[in-house]
Amino acid sequence: MMRVIATLAVLLGLAVSAAADDLRGTGDLGIVIERASGSIAIVDTTNHAILGRVEGLGDVSHASAVYSRDERYVYVFGRDGGLTKIDMLTRKIVDRVVQSGNAIGGAISDDGRLIAVSNYEPGGVKVFNAETLDLVADIPAVYGKAGARSKTVGLVDAPGRRFVFSLWDAGETWIVDFSTGETPQVTKFADIGLNPYDGLITGDGRHYLAGLFGEDGLAHIDLWAEPPAPRRILDNYGRGEEKLPVYKMPHLEGWALAGDRFFLPAIGRHEVLAVDARSFEEIGRIKVKGQPVFAVARPDGRQVWVNFALPDNRFIQVIDVPTMTIVHEFEPGPAALHMEFSPRGHEVWISVRDADRVDVYDTRTFAKIAELPAMKPSGIFFTARAHRTGL
Amino acid sequence: MYDHMAVRTTKSGQKAPRHKSRRVSYVEIAAAIALTCIALAAAIGDTIASAPGLTQERQRQLTEFVRQDCGSCHGMTLKGGLGRPLSADMFEGRGADIIAEIILDGIPGTAMPPWRALLTEAEADWIAEALKRGDIR
User: N or C, which end of chain A has less CB nearby within 10 Å?
Assistant: First the structure.
C-alpha cells in the first residue's frame, strides 16, 4: 500500500512539474489585427514570434482592443459591431456578441468589470459585463429637437467607473458614470466644437481632449474641475489658411503626452502641434512630411513617432522632444499605419499593411530587429495596456 | 472658422472642364458596357469590366485602394463608417459621372476629401462605375 501511495505521489509530482513547465505569463504578449482576414495574430514580444492565430472575428478593419486586468483576456472591437473576448493563452474565442451594425472601438472600466463599445450605427454607446458580455446599459446618442442619433467617437475609460465619449454629428461630449451601480449618471456637454473625430484621456485620467474636424481647434475638459466644463484650445491653429486634403482621419491616443508637452496631429496641415500640458497653449509646431495620422510618444516621452496619410504612408518620422526637431526619417514600406511600443519603449512594432508584414525596430539605434509575416496587419495592442488609463 | 470651406467651394470652377469631358466618357462607358457584355458572354468568372486605358493590374490596385483606403472612412467592406456606405443601392438614381466628380473634388464642408491629386479622371470613372455595379465589396 505504501508503495502504491509513493508511486502515486511520484506520478503526481511529475504531472505537476510537467504542467509547471507549460505555465507562462501574458505580460509580454500582444495581438496584431489582420484586417482583411477577420483574424488576430497573438504575438510574443520577447521572442518576436507569432504564437498563433484566432479567426472568425468578422470585419476587423479599424478594429481595436482592450485587456482584462489580469492580462489573460483580450476584448476585440470589430467594425461590424462584433465584440469578441479571447483567451490569450489558449488562443480561443471565449465569447462573442455582435452588438451593433457598425462600431468604432471601446474601453474597459478601471475596475475591469465593464466593457463599453462606441457605435456608429445605431449611434451610441453600449456597456457590457466584462465577464459574461451581457448587456448592462444602452446609451443612445440622441441629440437635438428631432431626436437624431449621432455617431460616437473618442470613447475612453476614466477613473471611477466612468467613460467619456464625443458625438461626431452633434458636437457634444458625454460622461457616463457607473460609480453607483449599473445605471449610469450621464453628464452632457453641448457645443464642444464641430465634428469631433476622436478623443484621448491622459494617463492620470484628468484631461480629456477631443480633436475637431470641422474647425481649427480642440476641445478640452479638465475632469478634476468641479464641475468639469469644456473649453476650446488651440483655436484657429490653421490661421484661416485653406486646409490640405485629409485622406485618412488622424487618431488621438493616450500616448500623446511626452513629458510636459502634448504632441497632436494637425488637421489639414502637415504639422504636429506641441502644446504645453499645463496651460494648454501652443508652444510650437513641427513641420512633418504629410498629414499626420498617429503622433505617438515613446513611453519615456523622449521621442514622438509620426506616421502619415496617403500619399506619404510609406514613411515614419521621429521627433526628438527636447529639441522639437525631426531626428530620423525612414521608409518601413507601403501603408505603415500602426505603431506600438514595448512597455518601456526599447522597441517599436510597426504594421506595414500592404507588405503583409510587421516590423520590429530598436528605438535607440533605429535598426530593424525582426520581420513577422501577417495578413494585411493594422492595429497592434500589447497586454501592458491593461494597466494604463485610456488605452 | 469656415474660411477653408469658403475657399474650397470657390474651386468649383475646376469642375467646368470635367462636365465638357463627360460626353466623351459616356462613349467610354457605353464601350465598357459593350465590352462587359462580350466578356460575360465569352468568358467565365471575370466580374470586372475591362475599361479602356486601365490595365488589369491597375484595376486590381484600384479595387484594393477602394477597400483599404476609401475603407478608412467607408468601411473595408464598404458598409459605412464615419462616411456613408458605398454599396450599390446607395448609388441608385445617381449617375456615375456625379460619383466620379465627388471622388475627384470631394464634398466641401464634409470629411470627404478631393482625390484628384492621387487619381486620374479615368481611374475615378472606373471606380465610380465599379461601385455603381457593386463590383467592389
Answer: N
Count of other CB atoms within 10 angstroms of residue B91: 17
CB contact A353 to B (< 8 Å) = yes
CATH of the domain at B96: 1.10.760.10
d(CA B46, nearest CA chain A) in Å: 22
Taking the C-alpha atoms of residue A133 and residue A108, their distance in angstroms, rounded to an integer, is: 12
Domain assignments of chain A as residue spans, ordered by start:
99-245
Structural domain count, chain B:
1
ipTM exceeds 0.85: no
Domain made up of A99-245: CATH architecture: 7 Propeller (2.130)
Q: Which residues of A8-20 are buried (b: 16+ CB within 10 A; e: fewer)?
A: eeeeeeeeeeeee
Q: Which residues have a Cβ under 8 Å from the Cβ of B135 and sit 6 or more positions away?
A: B47, B48, B49, B63
Q: Do B82 and A376 touch (CB under 8 A)?
A: no
Tell me the three state secondary structure of residue A19: helix
Test A59 with B68 for CB contact under 8 angstroms: no
Contact A381, A31 (CB under 8 A): yes
Chain A, residues 41-100, CB within 8 A of chain B, namely 59, 61-62, 79-80
- pTM of the entire predicted model: 0.85
Q: Give pLDDT tens digits for B3-39.
A: 343 333 333 334 334 443 444 455 455 555 555 444 4
Its domain, for residue B101, covers 3-133
